Amino acid sequence: MAGKFRFTFGPWNIHEGADVFGPAVRKTIEFEKKLEMYKNLGFSGVQFHDDDAVPVLEGKSASQIASEARSLKQRLDDMGLKAEFVAPRLWEDSRTIDGGYTSNDPACRKYAIERSKICIDITKELGIDLVVLWLAREGSYIRESKDSVVATERLVDAINVMLGYDPDIRICVEPKPNEPMDHAYIPTTGHAIALGMLTDDADRVGVNIESAHAILAGLDPSDEMGFALAHNKLWTVHLNDQNGLKFDQDKSFGSVDLRRAFNQVRILDRHDYGKNGEWVGLDVKAMRTQKDEKATAHLTNSLEMFNLLLKASRSTDDAKIDSFIAERNYEALDLYIMKHIMGR
Ligand code: XLS
Ligand code: MG
Question: Whole-angstrom Cα distance, residue 45 to residue 51?
């Protein structure tokens, strides 16, 4: 069967448990300590925001940023870890309140572009070519505040600047329909791929599909992945789970809907995801109730569930499935899959 999967997560996936309504409930684990934990947890790849890689970017010169990124690369090499991607954190600065690339204020748009260039510099110093754009604030709270045609054009312009800034980088747009904005301009995989097609070099624009984001858009993550795979655009994934249309929960993979998780693993495996070096990212968060000493269980649990579901996916009786399909006996197929996932 298909190859082996390699797993990544970002330092933000080990966190203190603060939420919109309450403060941190777990001790902070220093970044370096987190890096030391990766291998023991079964992960060999690290995803970064630009300021995870080089903290406090503001006020640092380009050469200082480059030298800090180079020293991080050295530490990763020493630990046997690889960076997967870098994403510009464009949602925390006061200049991105109304959006980065789609802000109505030209000075703020300029800031977003400059910050993205810094992100690309860091990406290159880490020896990789992948930038992820989660377009957090590229949307609106009220429709009348922005023009959706202009916003789309501004997103294209911004991506063009990034593509032009470095001839090798590839950009993965990570769609999400809402939160923090009421309406986001790039809510789904289809939007992300179509946006890429408007750019100067569509071949260098792909997608990062996060399970919870697809579910928040009322879509099935495995079908979203299939659509992207059919376009050769699935260059990374953020697997997790989500209990209906609520806040973005980033629950452990498979913890809400095992069958939905099974189908994500199945589509990835059946189409050799990873054959071009793509990683499996687990963008999961620990429950706020979790105690300090178990603050990483959500990561190992998600990894274990992926591997168990991979086993389940690879052990289906495909002749049986084909005959159910040929007979159009989907009730039998339905029961077969449910029992198979239950190990019966
Ligand atoms: C938020 C996203 C974010 C990106 C990286 O929902 O998951 O963490 O993946 O910027
Ligand atoms: Mg994500």
Answer: 17
Token representation of residue 8: 């990544």
Cα gap 266→339, rounded to integer Å? 16
Domain count, the chain: 1
- Compute the distance between CA of residue 184 and CA of residue 80 in angstroms, rounded to an integer: 38
The protein residue whose alpha carbon is closest to atom 3 in ligand 1 is: 134
Is residue 344, in this structure, part of any structural domain at all? no
Cβ–ligand 1 contact at 238 (below 6 Å): yes
Range(s) of the domain holding residue 281: 7-298
Q: Looking at the CA of 176, name the nearest ligand.
A: 1
**Per-residue pLDDT tens for 123-177?**
999 999 999 999 999 999 999 999 999 999 999 999 999 999 999 999 999 999 9
CATH number for the domain that contains residue 76: 3.20.20.150
Return d(Cα 299, Cα 342) in angstroms, integer: 22
